Amino acid sequence: MKILTRRELPGALCEFKRVMRALFGECVYDVKHMMRFCQKRLYGGLDRVALTLQVNRAVGKCHQAGSDSLLTWHAFQRMRDLYFLQDGPEKHAGVLYGLEIV
Q1: Which of 10, 16, 26, 35 has the highest local Cβ count within 10 Å?
Q2: Cα–Cα distance for residue pair 5/63, rounded to 1 Å
Q3: How many C-alpha atoms does 75 have within 13 Å on its Cβ side?
């Protein structure tokens, strides 16, 4: 967000979410938040979650932005297909783990 806006991050959550929606739209999903609502409780970091979901890293190494982003996308798709097929993930859109949920 800082790179895209060339400004400091907003100080208030409501302003942060407003800018986030303007940049990325309404359908922003936080995998860490969604993990809490999976029938098979998922926990840990990205690599552990991917292992549990049987998702393989397609390219690169851990802690590289592109590789981690792609693995996160694949983990989200797998979570959606396994745990959110009936209801869909939409009720979790826009919720950011650690900022809103304690």
Answers
A1: 35
A2: 24
A3: 27
